[in-house]
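Troubleshooting: if your tokenizer reports a length mismatch, compare your output against this known-good record of 189 residues.
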Amino acid sequence: MMLPEGPRGRWLALGILLIVFGVLVRLIGLPLGSWYVSLLEDRQLLLAELHQAQRIAQHLPALQVHSQQMAARQALDVVLWPGSNQALTAANLQHMVQQQVSRQGGRVLSTRVLPARQTSTLESVSLQLVCQIDITGLQALVHALTQHQPLLFFEQVHIQARPQAEQTLLSVRLVLSGLRRPDLSPEAT
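Known-good structure output:
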């Protein structure tokens, strides 16, 4: 095949050259350009992550202290009684103890909330309970109360036997206490 000569041939050669250049741009240039653009975007993302990591690293000591305080607080929350104030905590304690006595076949005669005692970081909420229960019920009650979470502490235990026709009922007076966080609001002081 013979190519035309003169101006017509030059135009044909220029057209073929433009077609080859277009194919090369399409096959090599566009993928290379999109790869370069994605590389720039990745660089921007990495720089943003680096700046965020540097900001976090500046706050790391304070975050570690806060994290340790939160962990200690959560570990202690397992043994503390819930309630936003002393009265609600005492009500929770009283309700739970009455339920336990009833479950063990006993009968609650009276309950009384005693004045709270506060240490530097915790407040002790105490409850005096008088009930009648048989010996196996008392054993089950003591076991249930000592295994309970949040923790209960026995401060006083008085047991007096009351013989009846079929079984011996015990008259039991317990002073129990649970711990809670004291009110931190200014109204509570």
